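It is worth pausing here to work through a concrete case rather than discussing structure prediction in the abstract. The textbook approach is simple: state the sequence, then state the predicted structure, then interpret. We follow exactly that order.
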Amino acid sequence: MSENHLDAQLRNDFGKGAARRARRDGVIPAVMYGHGSDTMHLGLPSHETFLIVRSNPNAVVELSVDGETYLTLVKDVQRHPVSRNILHVDLLAVKAGEKVDVEVPISVVGEPQAGLTHTVETFQVMVAAPATSIPEFIEVDIEGAEDGLVIHAGDLKLPENVDLVTDEEVDILSVAEIQENEIPEPEAAAEGESEGAEAAEAAEEASEEE
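Step two, the predicted structure:
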């Protein structure tokens, strides 16, 4: 069973005004759906919800609603673009034994051979995993990797009972020689700065005309 537990309340007031009032009162608007049941509009305790989702985008949460218990998976968290405060949460009702499709981040460990560097092409992959044992990340070990190595999604070592959904041919990571970046000459750099300043002035003038 999930270690995360929230006491949720049913919401009967909808719309932007109601959502703002709820957030002012420390309640995050949320919806729960899945398994053919009607969508439930809920209010979640703000601080407790933040602690659960801050480091795990695929958190499994046990909800208590009017004496009923539901096992849910966090599917989407909407945040304010500036403050990053949680505005809304989407929850998918799940069962302990079923598999769900989730995106899991890639975690790179180790270093390639001297003079080489790695580039991550895909930062997360879609997998099908048991709802109650979703991996926090998929590890990719590049210790001692040689020049030219390319790791595809099909090369990933997945935990037991976890299946790859992403196309096996998708590039995950590549290893190559470190490229030295040329430092521009002072005159060229100054010329670039001048052109950038002119472009900024032109954009400002255009905005004033509108």
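Step three, interpretation. The chain has three helices and 13 strands. The first strand starts at residue 4 and ends at 10.
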